[in-house]
Automatic annotation (TrEMBL):
CDD domains: PX_p47phox (cd06887), SH3_p47phox_1 (cd12021), SH3_p47phox_2 (cd12022). Residues 4-125 form the PX domain. The gene is Ncf1. This is NCF1 factor. Residues 337-375 are annotated as: Disordered. Gene3D superfamilies: Phox-like domain, SH3 Domains. Residues 352-361 have a biased composition (Basic and acidic residues). Keywords: Cytoplasm, Phosphoprotein, Repeat, SH3 domain. Residues 337-347 have a biased composition (Polar residues). GO terms for cellular component: cytoplasm; NADPH oxidase complex.
Length: 389
């Protein structure tokens, strides 16, 4: 395939570690040209030394000869004492630095100095720890702060989930699990694959195999939206189970229920069924390289295929059958048609009422019926009664 190079570097956040003494390391998700993704950990002092060496290697591009020629980004020197506040506040600058670094000319962005610095080390896979000291605290960078360095709102502690069944990985980027394992979720993707870490192991795990510790995950849509959201199929899929749909690339569908295991309930005309969310894209959105890359992965396992009767997914959540989805969706479509028909009829009535008065036939007075003999004898005067006797 040729020499390895980095396609993208994303700052995930930082860890507060307590061994051999308290210090902070930044977490980077490094995406390589072979489509592999690795998480590496670097102290800021290491990053700054890397930065200084890079400037020495490329004096013209670093502006040492002429400041106007500088294209290598700036990076502030580390403080005498780096605490949690400075570590947190530096995230925006560091995220921007990595973005600029990867987009420099290839002679810089793909040089051995850059490639070797972000390669996975032994310590990345097996960090030095002490069982007597509490485990590292993880702080995840918010999505908004990744977009703008000025929008950093503060750290987010990673959520812990429990594995409900054994899972055997099928690729090097995934992570195997045993039932009962406690994992920290670094990144949740709506395609059903979550990036997790367990002690010194890290990798992608199907969300269907994970459950929160205290109840159903609140980020999942609890109720279907039968009005539906318009999506476009980006990759064809042939149904394997009876409750799945077979669709072709380019088909337009409506999503009526988004589930965390990456299998969404969709509607095509009057048919409903499950479809991998990673093969769908919201109507009107532009496809990105990241989304296109994710579609090359296989669809995650469905939650219904995992046998575990004790799972929170089965106990604390209302299970909706495919027949219920189909019936309620069909009922919604029929009600919409009736409402459209009624609105048209009302419009026609309004038009008729607005017709000119000259075109309408004038109403004739109604002739009252003749009263009966008994009614006259009981209610009329003596003179009127004499006339009928």
């Amino acid at each position: 395939m040729g020499d390895a190079f980095i396609r993208h570097i994303e700052l995930l956040g930082y860890e507060k570690r307590f061994f051999p003494s308290q210090h902070y390391v930044y977490m980077f998700l490094v995406k390589w040209n072979d489509l592999s993704e690795k998480v590496v950990y670097r102290r800021f002092t290491e990053i700054y030394e890397f930065h200084k060496a890079l400037k020495e290697m490329f004096p013209i591009e670093s502006g040492d000869i002429n400041i106007e020629n500088r294209i290598i980004p700036h990076l502030p020197a580390p403080k005498w004492f780096d605490g949690q506040r400075s570590t947190q506040n530096r995230q925006g600058t560091l995220a921007e630095y990595c973005y600029t670094l990867v987009n420099l000319p290839h002679k810089i962005s793909r040089c051995l100095h850059v490639v070797n610095f972000f390669k996975v080390r032994h310590d990345d896979m097996n960090p030095v720890t002490d069982s007597q000291i509490k485990k590292p605290e993880v702080f995840l960078l918010t999505k908004d702060s990744k977009k703008s360095p000025t929008d950093i709102t503060g750290p987010i502690v990673l959520q812990t989930y429990r594995a409900i069944a054994d899972y055997e990985k099928s690729s090097t980027s995934e992570m195997a699990l045993k039932a009962g394992d406690m994992v920290d979720v670094v990144e949740k993707s709506e395609n059903g694959w979550w990036f997790c870490q367990l002690k010194n192991k890290r990798g992608w795990v199907p969300a269907a195999y994970l459950e929160p510790l205290d109840g159903p995950d609140e980020s999942e849509e609890q109720e279907p939206n039968y009005a539906g959201e318009a999506y476009v199929v980006q990759k064809s899929y042939t149904a394997v189970e009876e409750d799945e749909l077979t669709l072709k690339e380019g088909d337009t569908i409506e999503v009526i229920h988004k589930l965390l295991d990456g299998w969404w309930v969709i509607r095509k005309d009057e048919s409903t069924g499950y479809y991998p969310s990673m093969y769908l894209q919201k109507a009107g959105e532009v496809s990105t390289a990241v989304k296109s890359e994710l579609r090359n992965r296989g669809a995650p396992p469905r939650r219904s295929t995992i046998r575990n009767v004790k799972s929170i997914h089965k106990q604390g959540r209302k299970q909706i059958s495919q027949e219920t989805y189909r019936r309620n969706s069909k009922k919604y479509i029929q009600n919409q048609r009736k409402m459209r028909g009624n609105s048209q009829n009302k419009a026609n009535v309004i038009i008729e009422k607005n017709e000119p008065e000259d075109n309408k036939p004038k109403a004739q007075p109604a002739v009252p019926p003749r009263p009966s003999k008994d009614l006259i004898l009981n209610r009329c005067t003596e003179s009127t009664r004499r006339k009928i006797l």
